[in-house]
């Protein structure tokens, strides 16, 4: 079981929160917004890869094609 | 004891999810999704062994393999639909979740139709 990926996602979330607070303090609302968007996309890509693994596995175990 | 491992891991993920839900709800959702997928993958690898045993039993009972494979397909569709619906419901999108469930039901009914017709044919043959 790949535990690292979950901790990567959690760490990324905390990092983005902190950076977002800093950017907001520095009056850079738009960049904070962009950072949020980029973070969500990166995490989404990671999760989508994982889901791809899952669906391939379900397909092979249950003979779905 | 794999269950201890899973529960410990789940606690850690829960703490992170609670931490992230206040500031970044979208990342908390993705975290829960990733955790769900990991657990699912782990359970599925065990499921493969169970299915092998059932396949052997089906062969011994002399039942057509087609019915068993249909059953497996239905099981797979049910698992995936349930998983997707739970994730959507977790994110507060009950409407999308119920649509997923509806699609799953229709697809399962479609797969079950050949079995239903087989049963009906048997009944018709038994009747004079």
Q: What is the helix content of chain B?
A: over 70%
- Which pair of chains forms the biggest interface, and how many residues does each contribute? A-B, 32 and 33 residues
Low-confidence stretches of chain A: none
> What structural category characterises the helix and strand content of chain B?
mainly alpha
Number of strands of chain B: 0
**Tell me, what's the shape of chain B?**
elongated
Query: What is the C-alpha radius of gyration of chain B, as a whole number of Å?
Result: 20 Å
Largest sheet descriptor of chain B: none
What oligomerization state is this entry in? heterodimer
Helix-strand pattern of chain A, N to C? HH
Share of β-strand residues of chain B: under 5%
Write the layout of secondary structure elements.
The complex is a heterodimer of chains A (65) and B (128).
Chain A lengths: L2 H23 L3 H34 L3
Chain B lengths: L1 H22 L1 H37 L3 H26 L3 H33 L2
Helix pairs in contact in B: 1-2, 2-3, 3-4
